[in-house]
Design goal:
This is Bacteriocin-protection protein, YdeI/OmpD-associated family. The chain is of the alpha+beta class. It has 8 helices and 4 strands; from the N terminus they run βαβαββαααααα. Helix content is 48%, strand content 14%.
């Protein structure tokens, strides 16, 4: 099934789309212009907050061309886990009255489960297994070393979220593969 692609130029545009579609659609890919284009676009935080208001969540980002990328959003599943940040954003949005009934229901459901960040430090250091794997691949290590702190932290946390040792090992291999290719997106 093809995911609907929508262009939004402001936070209000995305909110209007969600008002009309949050209950009948389950996914959307927002076409976002990169900064160098000089075109107006909402920030990730603004888009995420609007999604939270309707019980939706951001998922992946995929490059389209040199000027645009797709930021995917989807309706939260009944058992989806929230991050500490998204719970905090939802609390703030609730206080200022921006949450919709769908968003409030998703938020209340999210409060009943531990977050997917549970027990993971906000700024973890490089896990030993990842350090060993990168040390065996010179190109991957070179690329990984050049990543920003936030990209490194994203990779560390992704590995640390694995519940099983087998999953964690697969994620370490995937991080090395992505780093070797110079890619920053999981």
């Amino acid at each position: 099934m093809e995911v609907k692609k929508v262009r939004v130029f402001s936070r209000a545009d995305f909110r209007k789309w969600l008002e009309k579609n949050h209950s009948k659609e389950s996914k959307v890919a927002l076409v976002i212009h990169k900064k160098h284009t000089g075109k107006r676009f909402p920030t990730h935080r603004e888009l995420l907050e609007e999604a939270i208001c309707f019980g939706w969540v951001d998922t992946t980002v995929k490059g389209v061309d040199e000027d645009t990328f797709l930021r995917h959003f989807s309706k939260r599943g009944a058992n989806s886990k929230w991050s500490d940040n998204t719970l905090r954003y939802a609390r703030e949005l609730l206080v200022v009255g921006r949450m919709t009934p769908a968003g409030i229901a998703a938020y209340e459901s999210g409060l009943k489960r531990p977050t997917h960040d549970f027990g993971i430090p906000k700024n973890p250091s490089m896990p030993a297994d990842l350090k060993r794997a990168l040390s065996r691949d010179k190109l991957a290590l070179e690329h990984f070393t050049g990543y920003s702190r936030s990209v490194k932290r994203m990779f560390y946390r992704w590995g640390l979220r694995a519940k099983r040792a087998e999953t964690r090992s697969k994620r370490v291999v995937e991080v090395v593969r992505l780093a070797r290719a110079g890619r920053r997106v999981i």
